[in-house]
Amino acid sequence: MKITKLVRTFLSQNPWMRNCRNLRSGAVKESVDCVVIGAGVVGIAVARELSLNYGRNVLVIESDSSFGTGSSSRNSQVIHGGIYYPPASLKGRFCVRGRRLLYEYCKQHGIPHKQIGKLIVATRHEEVPKLSYLLNRGNENGVEGLRMMEASEAMAMEPHLQCIRALWSPTSGIIDSHSLMLSLLVSDVTTFCLVNNTRM
Ligand SMILES: Cc1cc2nc3c(=O)[nH]c(=O)nc-3n(C[C@H](O)[C@H](O)[C@H](O)COP(=O)(O)OP(=O)(O)OC[C@H]3O[C@@H](n4cnc5c(N)ncnc54)[C@H](O)[C@@H]3O)c2cc1C
Asked: How confident is the model over 44-62, as pLDDT tens digits?
């Protein structure tokens, strides 16, 4: 019911949907400023940004019958802290900044999410240096609040866990990625249009 209402709002706020029908019937009557290929979470977010903050008319072309049917709806739905990527790499920078912005977006738009934190554990002594390596890497990436935990503290947090040391990442979390994508599509007034069943 809630989704139907959101979609109705989207349709009423997006005259571009009419143009989509024209495109589907082969009678192309409009031009667009930008075309985004692929309606996964990245494509939808890019289209929204171009539309909302840069005033562009955007067409999103998706080969499948709906948005977000690829990796974006088959992933682990973890909001990553930003520990693993090489420092100063684009992935490292974007993961940390994107995580902060994502939590902000979730709060503003009521997207189900929880900042539950994450334990990365060593179950054998040989694995402990790897935790130290990840701690240093995460610190270099600017990940907030990372710290090593003794086994007793980690196992008190998670009684079913068996480990000898742990790295605690308090900024990691989980998100309902389906709600996120729907929200990116239908919330706020945008002028982007999604055409399904169309392969580039
Ligand atoms: C097993 C697994 C677990 C993961 N877990 C996490 C996680 O916990 N947290 C996290 O942040 N990330 C995770 N990821 C990564 C995350 O899912 C991806 O980074 C993200 O979904 C990529 O989004 P996307 O929009 O680029 O791609 P996609 O979601 O793959 O979207 C691409 C879209 O483009 C369409 N398309 C492709 N070719 C064409 C064409 N020629 N014409 C028209 N349309 C086309 C496809 O149909 C698809 O809908 C995971 C990935 C995997 C595989």
From this structure: 999 999 999 999 999 999 9
Closest ligand 1 atom to Cα of 76: 8
Q: Is residue 200 part of a domain?
A: no
Confidence of residue 190 (pLDDT cuts 50, 70, 90): confident
The answer on 83 and 65 residing in a single domain is no
- Pairing outcome for strands 34-37 and 165-169: unpaired
Q: Give the residue from 76, 19, 71 showing the smallest Cα distance to 44.
A: 71
CA quadruple 92, 71, 103, 36: dihedral positive or negative?
A: positive
pLDDT of amino acid 1: 36
Ligand 1 atom having least distance to the Cα of 72: 21
What is the count of structural domains for the chain?
A: 2
CA of 196 to the centre of ligand 1 (A): 16
Rg of the chain, C-alpha, whole Å: 21
